[in-house]
Amino acid sequence: MAVTRLSGGTTPANGSDPRTFPTIWNATADVIEANETALDSLALTSLSGVSITSPVDNQLLTYNGTNWVNEAPAAPAGSVLQVVSATKTDASFSTTSQSFTTVTGLTATITPTSTSSKILVFCNASMSSNVSAGTGYARLARGGSAIFIGDASSSRIRTGTTISPPSNDTTGQTALLGEDSPATVSATTYALEIRSDRVASTVYVNRSHNNPNNNYGFTAFSSITLMEVAG
Description:
Blueprint: H1 24-34, H2 36-40, E1 60-63, E2 68-71, E3 80-88, E4 94-95, E5 101-110, E6 118-129, E7 136-142, E8 145-147, E9 161-163, E10 172-180, E11 188-196, E12 203-205, E13 222-229
Antiparallel strand pairs: 1-2, 3-13, 4-12, 5-11, 6-10, 6-12, 6-13, 7-8, 7-9, 7-11
């Protein structure tokens, strides 16, 4: 820090010599020079009650009324903050269970950045059933608890959607979409769960129930995508 010292003396009343100033300027300069070292070394960390850590990319230093904290600037509501997805391209999963079962490979985990965030969940699955009168059921779950399902109604199955058996060598496309409010900043896992509707009925993912090994047989594609949206 540099201090420019002004010439001392008393300024003439008629202002004929603009180069001279009251001696108070020199006194002020003495005070500033005496504190020059302290001013040069002044940092936020020297302030009482302040603890500051090194920020990472895209963080701002803000005061929350008690402490200085490094945090990401708030995004406008509706902004997409992150996207997580998982895909399943094999045809290894099937179930005969009449209880909802998690499909291997169709789970995804996201860690929200704010408790006010919404999570958009998209899932598409290619499914089939081996019984002509049978039905497959599919729903989404968060942390093992069903979400986006129909209301309770007597003995009826609460599900997200159903898949009726297509022809021997095809699958039906199941699509599920919903906006969830997990209200957490902890890692949260979403999954596709499926079940059959009766004994001896098998539900398959990414293959037809007939599954021919020839030039019209196939394996299909399924996926689950999570999108965090600022609340």
